[in-house]
Design a protein that fits this description.
Helix content is 70%, strand content 0%. The protein is an all-alpha fold. Helix 1 runs antiparallel to helix 5, helix 3 packs antiparallel against helix 4 and helix 4 packs antiparallel against helix 5. The radius of gyration is 17 Å and the shape is flat.
Length: 131
């Protein structure tokens, strides 16, 4: 039952993050939908970690090259998702208020993705592999 509560909580925070993203696009004073391209980064960010967990062995070694590479690629994806709204705002494609809303949505969504890996990433009987 604790897994279901965690899943509902993560769904709620994900919805809040997407609400901030959509507010940054759809409010009347902003009205530009270019910031929706950060959705690509939301989809791409967990993929390297999924691949590294599938391919790497579960030894308790202090360092694993495959997992370290996955963390590096994931960090690049996350930094790019925070950089895209800033670049769009500096080019005056979007306004700075929209940039702030999108970056708030980014922070909430990526904390939700991190929470997903913390809650369901363990090797116990209720893990992310079931989903």
């Amino acid at each position: 039952m604790a897994g279901i509560k965690a899943l509902v909580g993560l769904s709620f925070t994900g919805a809040i993050g997407l609400t901030f993203l959509l507010l940054g696009c759809a409010l009347e004073q902003y009205g530009v939908y270019w910031p929706l391209f950060v959705l690509i980064f939301y989809i791409l960010s967990p993929i390297p970690t999924f691949i590294s967990r599938r391919l790497s062995d579960d030894t308790d070694a202090s360092s694993n090259a495959c997992r370290e590479l996955a963390y590096f690629i994931t960090t690049g994806i996350v930094v790019s998702s925070f950089g895209l709204p800033i670049v769009l705002a500096r080019n005056t494609t979007i306004q700075w208020g929209a940039c702030g809303l999108v970056m708030t949505g980014n922070a909430v969504i990526f904390l939700t993705i991190l929470g997903f890996f913390v809650v369901f990433g363990g090797g116990d009987d209720f893990s992310w592999e079931q989903w």
